[in-house]
Amino acid sequence: MLPAHGYPKGAGHGVSLRSNLRKKQLVADQTSSDSHTLMTMNGISRFLLTGSLFCLLPLASAAQPAIQPTSAEFLLAESAVSVLPDSPGFVRTAALKAPAENASMIEAADGVPAVITNVARKSARTIQPGQQAQPLTSREKFIFSIRNQTRPMSPVNWVVSAGLSHLRDGRPHYGTDSGAFGERLGAAALKQSTQSVLVFGVFASAFHEDPRYYRLGSSHPFMKRAVYAASRILITRTDSGQPSINWARICGMAGSAAITNLYYPERDTGLNPTLRSYGDSFVTGAATNELREFMADAIAMIRRKR
Protein backbone atom coordinates (compact mmCIF):
# COMPACT_ATOMS: atom_id res chain seq x y z
CA MET A 1 0.00 0.00 0.00
CA LEU A 2 1.43 3.42 -1.00
CA PRO A 3 1.70 6.30 1.41
CA ALA A 4 -0.31 9.46 0.98
CA HIS A 5 2.38 11.31 -0.99
CA GLY A 6 2.64 8.48 -3.53
CA TYR A 7 6.14 7.16 -2.76
CA PRO A 8 6.85 3.68 -1.48
CA LYS A 9 7.57 3.31 2.16
CA GLY A 10 11.23 4.12 2.93
CA ALA A 11 11.68 6.10 -0.33
CA GLY A 12 11.29 9.50 1.40
CA HIS A 13 14.30 8.90 3.51
CA GLY A 14 16.43 8.28 0.37
CA VAL A 15 15.19 11.43 -1.32
CA SER A 16 15.94 13.49 1.74
CA LEU A 17 19.44 12.02 1.91
CA ARG A 18 20.15 12.85 -1.74
CA SER A 19 18.86 16.39 -1.23
CA ASN A 20 21.13 16.92 1.73
CA LEU A 21 24.10 15.61 -0.22
CA ARG A 22 23.27 17.96 -3.09
CA LYS A 23 23.08 20.92 -0.73
CA LYS A 24 26.40 20.00 0.85
CA GLN A 25 27.96 19.70 -2.60
CA LEU A 26 26.64 23.12 -3.58
CA VAL A 27 28.00 24.62 -0.35
CA ALA A 28 31.36 22.94 -0.95
CA ASP A 29 31.48 24.23 -4.53
CA GLN A 30 30.57 27.72 -3.38
CA THR A 31 33.24 27.56 -0.66
CA SER A 32 35.84 26.33 -3.18
CA SER A 33 34.87 29.09 -5.61
CA ASP A 34 35.14 31.71 -2.90
CA SER A 35 38.52 30.33 -1.81
CA HIS A 36 39.82 30.38 -5.39
CA THR A 37 38.60 33.94 -5.85
CA LEU A 38 40.27 34.97 -2.61
CA MET A 39 43.57 33.33 -3.58
CA THR A 40 43.43 35.05 -6.95
CA MET A 41 42.86 38.41 -5.30
CA ASN A 42 45.68 37.76 -2.86
CA GLY A 43 48.00 36.83 -5.73
CA ILE A 44 47.10 40.00 -7.63
CA SER A 45 47.63 42.07 -4.50
CA ARG A 46 51.06 40.53 -3.88
CA PHE A 47 52.04 41.09 -7.53
CA LEU A 48 51.02 44.74 -7.40
CA LEU A 49 52.82 45.24 -4.08
CA THR A 50 56.03 43.64 -5.38
CA GLY A 51 55.92 45.70 -8.56
CA SER A 52 55.44 48.87 -6.56
CA LEU A 53 58.47 48.06 -4.43
CA PHE A 54 60.65 47.45 -7.51
CA CYS A 55 59.47 50.76 -8.94
CA LEU A 56 60.38 52.55 -5.73
CA LEU A 57 63.87 51.03 -5.43
CA PRO A 58 65.50 53.25 -8.12
CA LEU A 59 63.98 56.32 -6.52
CA ALA A 60 65.34 55.31 -3.13
CA SER A 61 68.80 54.66 -4.61
CA ALA A 62 68.81 58.02 -6.36
CA ALA A 63 67.79 59.79 -3.17
CA GLN A 64 70.56 58.08 -1.17
CA PRO A 65 73.80 60.15 -1.10
CA ALA A 66 76.83 58.59 -2.85
CA ILE A 67 79.49 57.16 -0.57
CA GLN A 68 83.14 57.64 -1.55
CA PRO A 69 85.23 54.45 -1.48
CA THR A 70 87.77 54.55 1.26
CA SER A 71 90.55 52.88 -0.67
CA ALA A 72 94.18 52.91 0.41
CA GLU A 73 95.13 55.38 -2.32
CA PHE A 74 92.33 57.75 -1.33
CA LEU A 75 93.37 57.65 2.31
CA LEU A 76 97.01 58.25 1.39
CA ALA A 77 96.10 61.19 -0.79
CA GLU A 78 93.82 62.77 1.83
CA SER A 79 95.85 62.00 4.90
CA ALA A 80 97.81 64.85 6.43
CA VAL A 81 100.18 62.46 8.16
CA SER A 82 103.69 62.50 6.76
CA VAL A 83 104.67 59.44 4.75
CA LEU A 84 108.09 57.85 4.63
CA PRO A 85 110.00 58.74 1.43
CA ASP A 86 110.52 55.12 0.43
CA SER A 87 106.94 54.03 1.03
CA PRO A 88 104.53 53.22 -1.83
CA GLY A 89 102.23 56.01 -0.68
CA PHE A 90 104.96 58.60 -1.02
CA VAL A 91 105.87 57.38 -4.50
CA ARG A 92 102.25 57.40 -5.61
CA THR A 93 101.65 60.90 -4.21
CA ALA A 94 104.83 62.19 -5.82
CA ALA A 95 103.73 60.75 -9.15
CA LEU A 96 100.49 62.74 -8.93
CA LYS A 97 102.27 65.99 -8.09
CA ALA A 98 105.24 65.70 -10.49
CA PRO A 99 105.04 67.87 -13.65
CA ALA A 100 104.67 65.88 -16.83
CA GLU A 101 107.42 67.69 -18.75
CA ASN A 102 110.08 67.04 -16.11
CA ALA A 103 109.09 63.58 -14.95
CA SER A 104 109.37 60.10 -16.33
CA MET A 105 107.31 57.17 -15.09
CA ILE A 106 108.98 53.78 -14.80
CA GLU A 107 107.64 50.54 -13.41
CA ALA A 108 109.29 49.30 -10.25
CA ALA A 109 109.77 45.63 -9.42
CA ASP A 110 106.67 45.47 -7.25
CA GLY A 111 104.45 47.08 -9.89
CA VAL A 112 104.29 50.49 -8.15
CA PRO A 113 105.03 53.41 -10.53
CA ALA A 114 108.23 55.19 -9.54
CA VAL A 115 109.17 58.74 -10.52
CA ILE A 116 112.47 59.99 -11.84
CA THR A 117 112.42 63.77 -11.81
CA ASN A 118 114.47 66.14 -14.00
CA VAL A 119 114.45 63.90 -17.06
CA ALA A 120 115.10 65.69 -20.34
CA ARG A 121 112.60 65.40 -23.16
CA LYS A 122 113.62 63.21 -26.07
CA SER A 123 113.30 66.18 -28.41
CA ALA A 124 115.76 68.30 -26.38
CA ARG A 125 118.80 69.34 -28.44
CA THR A 126 120.83 70.24 -25.32
CA ILE A 127 120.98 68.19 -22.11
CA GLN A 128 121.34 70.51 -19.13
CA PRO A 129 123.58 69.73 -16.11
CA GLY A 130 121.85 67.34 -13.73
CA GLN A 131 119.32 66.18 -16.30
CA GLN A 132 118.94 62.54 -17.25
CA ALA A 133 118.81 61.86 -20.98
CA GLN A 134 116.42 59.25 -22.31
CA PRO A 135 117.84 56.80 -24.88
CA LEU A 136 116.89 57.37 -28.52
CA THR A 137 115.99 54.66 -31.01
CA SER A 138 116.94 54.90 -34.68
CA ARG A 139 113.43 56.05 -35.55
CA GLU A 140 113.54 58.71 -32.83
CA LYS A 141 116.91 59.93 -34.13
CA PHE A 142 115.41 60.52 -37.58
CA ILE A 143 112.51 62.39 -36.00
CA PHE A 144 115.05 64.34 -33.95
CA SER A 145 116.97 65.31 -37.12
CA ILE A 146 113.81 66.67 -38.75
CA ARG A 147 112.67 68.54 -35.63
CA ASN A 148 116.12 70.10 -35.39
CA GLN A 149 115.33 72.05 -38.56
CA THR A 150 111.82 73.03 -37.47
CA ARG A 151 112.97 74.85 -34.34
CA PRO A 152 112.43 78.62 -34.22
CA MET A 153 116.17 79.31 -34.42
CA SER A 154 116.70 77.34 -37.64
CA PRO A 155 115.32 80.03 -40.01
CA VAL A 156 117.40 82.58 -38.08
CA ASN A 157 120.52 80.53 -38.81
CA TRP A 158 119.62 80.39 -42.50
CA VAL A 159 119.17 84.16 -42.70
CA VAL A 160 122.41 84.88 -40.81
CA SER A 161 124.40 82.47 -42.97
CA ALA A 162 122.95 83.85 -46.22
CA GLY A 163 123.33 87.45 -45.02
CA LEU A 164 127.01 87.13 -44.11
CA SER A 165 127.77 85.40 -47.40
CA HIS A 166 125.83 88.08 -49.29
CA LEU A 167 127.60 91.01 -47.57
CA ARG A 168 131.07 89.76 -48.49
CA ASP A 169 130.00 88.09 -51.74
CA GLY A 170 131.32 84.79 -50.45
CA ARG A 171 130.44 81.18 -51.10
CA PRO A 172 128.18 80.30 -52.73
CA HIS A 173 128.88 82.97 -55.38
CA TYR A 174 125.43 83.88 -56.66
CA GLY A 175 126.11 87.63 -56.92
CA THR A 176 125.07 90.61 -54.81
CA ASP A 177 121.59 91.52 -56.03
CA SER A 178 118.32 90.75 -54.23
CA GLY A 179 117.82 87.59 -56.27
CA ALA A 180 121.24 86.34 -55.19
CA PHE A 181 120.28 86.71 -51.53
CA GLY A 182 117.24 84.53 -52.11
CA GLU A 183 119.42 81.88 -53.76
CA ARG A 184 121.89 82.01 -50.86
CA LEU A 185 119.00 81.70 -48.39
CA GLY A 186 117.69 78.61 -50.17
CA ALA A 187 121.17 77.09 -50.37
CA ALA A 188 121.78 77.67 -46.65
CA ALA A 189 118.45 76.05 -45.72
CA LEU A 190 119.14 73.06 -47.98
CA LYS A 191 122.69 72.53 -46.70
CA GLN A 192 121.77 72.77 -43.01
CA SER A 193 118.73 70.51 -43.45
CA THR A 194 120.78 67.91 -45.33
CA GLN A 195 123.50 68.04 -42.70
CA SER A 196 120.97 67.63 -39.88
CA VAL A 197 119.40 64.52 -41.42
CA LEU A 198 122.77 62.94 -42.23
CA VAL A 199 124.47 63.71 -38.89
CA PHE A 200 121.61 63.23 -36.42
CA GLY A 201 119.55 60.70 -38.33
CA VAL A 202 121.51 58.51 -40.74
CA PHE A 203 125.01 58.30 -39.26
CA ALA A 204 124.02 58.67 -35.60
CA SER A 205 121.87 55.57 -36.08
CA ALA A 206 124.56 53.74 -38.07
CA PHE A 207 127.31 54.37 -35.48
CA HIS A 208 124.96 54.13 -32.43
CA GLU A 209 125.91 57.62 -31.24
CA ASP A 210 123.98 60.14 -29.16
CA PRO A 211 123.33 63.27 -31.30
CA ARG A 212 122.64 65.61 -28.33
CA TYR A 213 124.94 68.16 -26.73
CA TYR A 214 125.62 67.62 -23.00
CA ARG A 215 126.25 70.99 -21.36
CA LEU A 216 128.82 71.20 -18.54
CA GLY A 217 127.34 74.25 -16.84
CA SER A 218 128.65 77.06 -14.64
CA SER A 219 130.02 74.69 -11.98
CA HIS A 220 133.08 74.12 -14.21
CA PRO A 221 135.87 76.61 -15.09
CA PHE A 222 135.36 78.81 -18.15
CA MET A 223 138.34 77.47 -20.12
CA LYS A 224 137.39 73.87 -19.48
CA ARG A 225 133.90 74.55 -20.78
CA ALA A 226 135.20 76.36 -23.88
CA VAL A 227 137.56 73.53 -24.80
CA TYR A 228 134.89 70.95 -24.05
CA ALA A 229 132.31 72.67 -26.29
CA ALA A 230 134.70 72.92 -29.24
CA SER A 231 135.87 69.32 -28.84
CA ARG A 232 132.31 67.93 -29.11
CA ILE A 233 132.69 68.28 -32.90
CA LEU A 234 135.16 65.38 -32.79
CA ILE A 235 134.16 63.62 -29.55
CA THR A 236 130.71 62.43 -28.54
CA ARG A 237 128.88 59.73 -26.57
CA THR A 238 127.61 56.40 -27.73
CA ASP A 239 124.07 55.25 -26.98
CA SER A 240 125.47 53.41 -23.95
CA GLY A 241 127.10 56.60 -22.62
CA GLN A 242 130.70 55.76 -23.49
CA PRO A 243 133.00 58.42 -25.09
CA SER A 244 133.65 57.93 -28.79
CA ILE A 245 134.92 59.67 -31.89
CA ASN A 246 132.07 61.67 -33.41
CA TRP A 247 131.86 59.62 -36.58
CA ALA A 248 128.29 60.75 -37.18
CA ARG A 249 129.30 64.41 -37.47
CA ILE A 250 132.51 63.71 -39.39
CA CYS A 251 130.73 61.60 -41.99
CA GLY A 252 127.51 63.63 -42.02
CA MET A 253 129.23 66.95 -42.67
CA ALA A 254 131.33 65.32 -45.40
CA GLY A 255 128.18 64.04 -47.10
CA SER A 256 126.46 67.40 -46.80
CA ALA A 257 129.48 69.20 -48.30
CA ALA A 258 129.59 66.72 -51.19
CA ILE A 259 125.88 67.25 -51.97
CA THR A 260 126.46 71.01 -52.39
CA ASN A 261 128.04 70.18 -55.75
CA LEU A 262 124.52 69.53 -57.01
CA TYR A 263 123.16 73.06 -56.41
CA TYR A 264 126.13 75.43 -55.84
CA PRO A 265 127.40 77.61 -58.74
CA GLU A 266 130.02 76.02 -60.96
CA ARG A 267 132.90 78.02 -59.46
CA ASP A 268 132.04 76.58 -56.02
CA THR A 269 132.01 72.93 -57.09
CA GLY A 270 134.89 70.48 -57.29
CA LEU A 271 137.35 69.03 -54.78
CA ASN A 272 138.94 72.16 -53.34
CA PRO A 273 135.69 74.14 -52.85
CA THR A 274 134.09 71.04 -51.30
CA LEU A 275 136.96 70.64 -48.84
CA ARG A 276 136.69 74.32 -47.90
CA SER A 277 132.95 73.87 -47.32
CA TYR A 278 133.72 70.81 -45.21
CA GLY A 279 136.18 72.77 -43.07
CA ASP A 280 133.71 75.63 -42.65
CA SER A 281 131.20 73.13 -41.26
CA PHE A 282 133.61 72.21 -38.44
CA VAL A 283 134.11 75.89 -37.54
CA THR A 284 130.37 76.59 -37.63
CA GLY A 285 129.62 73.49 -35.55
CA ALA A 286 132.20 74.42 -32.90
CA ALA A 287 130.81 77.97 -32.67
CA THR A 288 127.28 76.57 -32.29
CA ASN A 289 128.42 74.36 -29.41
CA GLU A 290 129.99 77.38 -27.69
CA LEU A 291 126.64 79.15 -27.90
CA ARG A 292 124.89 76.12 -26.41
CA GLU A 293 127.36 76.04 -23.54
CA PHE A 294 127.40 79.73 -22.61
CA MET A 295 124.11 81.19 -23.90
CA ALA A 296 122.17 80.31 -20.74
CA ASP A 297 124.84 82.03 -18.59
CA ALA A 298 124.70 85.15 -20.74
CA ILE A 299 120.90 85.32 -20.51
CA ALA A 300 121.02 84.84 -16.73
CA MET A 301 123.60 87.62 -16.42
CA ILE A 302 121.44 90.03 -18.42
CA ARG A 303 118.42 89.26 -16.25
CA ARG A 304 120.40 89.88 -13.07
CA LYS A 305 121.52 93.30 -14.29
CA ARG A 306 117.92 94.27 -14.94
Task: Outline the secondary-structure elements.
Blueprint: H1 11-63, H2 72-78, H3 88-97, E1 103-107, E2 113-117, E3 126-127, H4 138-147, H5 153-167, H6 178-206, E4 209-210, E5 213-214, H7 222-231, E6 235-238, E7 243-245, H8 247-259, H9 271-305
Parallel strand pairs: 3-5
Antiparallel strand pairs: 1-2, 4-6, 6-7
The helix tally amounts to 9
Distance between the termini: 152 Å
Strand order of the largest sheet: 4-6-7
Order of helices and strands: HHHEEEHHHEEHEEHH
What portion of residues is helical? Answer: 55-70%
Structural class, please? Answer: mainly alpha
What does the radius of gyration come to? 47 Å
Using the alpha-carbon principal axes, give the shape. Answer: extended
Largest sheet geometry: 3 strands, antiparallel
Can you count the beta strands? 7
Mean pLDDT over the full residue set: 75
Which percent band covers the strand fraction? Answer: 5-15%
Low-confidence stretches: 36-115
